[in-house]
Design brief:
Number of strands: 15
Structural class: alpha/beta
Shape: flat
Low-confidence stretches: none
Strand order of the largest sheet: 2-3-1-4-11-5
Number of helices: 9
């Protein structure tokens, strides 16, 4: 592959590994973005669209997008802020995966119980910028000056081991399930920010002619995200209970209501949030709905 083969193509940056990589591949498949990535190559051409995928470290994607080197990218909100590129990229779409929290953590059995206790001591992190901003506000509030201020030290990995090794009094790190944190004998005393994966584009795009393709890909990805969030709920209910039923399943805009051969009954179809479906079914049973069916969505446009 050479530079000429990329001319005129939309360049789409994807995390090459890590916590977001596999989910991104599922998202691309759901959006029917077809490609074959050759072993060890970080650039590949999409077969059915004028797109080239560029596999990059997630931490580099905000800079590549913000500077216009690539047109679209997927990365974490935390990574954008850590790279200080929030004014150079536009968040197009939240993707609903990669959710975690950047938290201040300390040894569970130690004397430090609050952020104020930790202020002025040693903090180790891979998020030097975000941690620096956070503890600057804490130090300023506590009127700590000079060598009394919090010392932020950068490490590239295994942050959770820093306290046990005597390198830090506390850490700032991403927490997803919390298993690693608990295994290291740590607990969270504050949350710096909540984060998730997002689709981003440059705030000053270099290739305006690609905007229709960007809109198409964004629409497709939004459909995949919505399909993962919603299911279709169908059921039969007596007409006199219809108002109560549609209060339970109002749908995104309105439910679809169809007459049945038995005029005392109607069929209702509505989109329901997947996370609420069990409660919705219970509520429908309680008002007398019958034949309640749930259908998963592969894709949609909403």
């Amino acid at each position: 592959m050479n530079a000429e083969s990329l001319d005129g193509r939309l360049l789409f940056a994807i995390p090459k590994k890590g916590r977001l990589h596999e989910k991104c591949l599922e998202l691309l498949a759901g959006a029917d973005i077809q490609f074959r990535r050759h072993h060890r190559l970080d650039v590949c051409l999409v077969k059915n669209h004028n797109i080239a995928l560029v596999f990059l470290p997630a931490a580099d994607i905000p800079s590549f997008v913000g500077k216009g080197n690539v047109d679209l990218g997927i990365t974490g909100q935390d990574v954008i802020l850590e790279a200080q590129m929030q004014s150079h990229v536009t968040e197009v779409l939240k993707l609903g995966f990669g959710r975690c929290a950047l938290q201040v953590q300390v040894p569970e059995t130690g004397p430090i119980k609050t952020v104020e206790d930790l202020a002025g001591k040693r903090v180790v992190t891979s998020f030097e910028v975000l941690s620096g901003h956070y503890f600057k506000e804490v130090d300023d509030r506590l009127q700590l000056v000079d060598d009394k201020r919090t010392k932020i030290e950068y490490v590239g990995g295994s942050v959770e081991a820093a306290c046990a090794l005597g390198l830090a009094d506390g850490i700032v790190d991403l927490v997803e399930s919390g298993d690693t944190m608990r295994a290291a004998g740590l607990h969270a005393i504050a949350t710096v920010l909540e984060t998730e994966a997002v689709l981003i584009k440059s705030s000053t795009p270099k290739h305006p002619a690609l905007e229709p393709l960007i809109k198409l890909i964004t629409s497709r990805i939004a459909g995949v995200v919505a399909a993962g969030r919603y299911v279709v709920c169908e059921y039969n209910v007596r007409r006199e209970r219809l108002h109560a039923a549609t209060a339970i399943t109002p749908g995104r805009r309105a439910p679809t209501i169809s007459p049945l051969e038995d005029e005392a009954w109607v069929a209702v179809s509505s989109m329901v949030e997947k996370s609420k479906v069990a409660d919705v079914m219970d509520d429908l049973v309680n008002i007398g709905a019958e034949d309640i069916l749930i259908f998963n969505l592969d894709n949609c446009r909403v």
